[in-house]
Amino acid sequence: MSRLWYVRPLGRAPRGAPHRRESLTPTVKRALKTAAWRDCGHRCVYCGTGMPLAEATLDHVHPMAHGGRSQPGNLVVACAPCNRRKGDLHPDEFFARWPAAAENFMRYARAVHRSFKRNARRAVSLAFAEAA
Fold first, then answer.
1. Domain-wise residue ranges, the chain
2. What is the phi/psi pair of residue 67, to 5°?
3. Can you name the residues that pair with 58 across neighbouring β-strands?
4. Biggest CA pair distance of the chain
5. Residue 95, SS3?
């Protein structure tokens, strides 16, 4: 049995913290990045530009700063500018600010949790309603 999902703790969590921060081994991180890159069609899920694996960055749709985990349903690939633009924004906030990113997200993020796609669809429909 391989230890593909082994997670190393980074040390002690502060008292009262709900979760320990996790650090993935380089092998696991590489495997998750390759799988996400393949699942996203070799494209950034926010702007839709194609990119090689070396330029792709892993993005947590639900940010780790807000309790997101490093699990396949929460990971997508994004180009560096889009990943910096999203930062630690919650998906609802990010898609409300950039509805075009939500459209691309619905198109290219195939292996994410369906609630994220539902939120993106809602942001696009609200943007069209405000524009009308």
1. 20-131
2. 100, 10
3. 77
4. 56
5. helix
Q: What is the pLDDT of residue 124?
A: 87
- Determine phi and psi for 119, rounding to 5 degrees: -65, -40
User: Per the structure block, which two tokens stand in for 78?
Assistant: 């994004």
Q: Does the pLDDT value for residue 22 go beyond 70?
A: no
Is the C-alpha dihedral spanning 106, 40, 7, 94 positive or negative? negative
Distance linking the first and last C-alpha atoms of the chain: 56
CA atoms of 127 and 88, how far apart (whole Å): 22
d(CA 35, CA 91): 21
Q: Which fold has domain 20-131?
A: DNA Binding (I), subunit A (1.10.30)
Does 55 score more than 90 pLDDT? Answer: yes
- The pLDDT assigned to 130 comes to 82
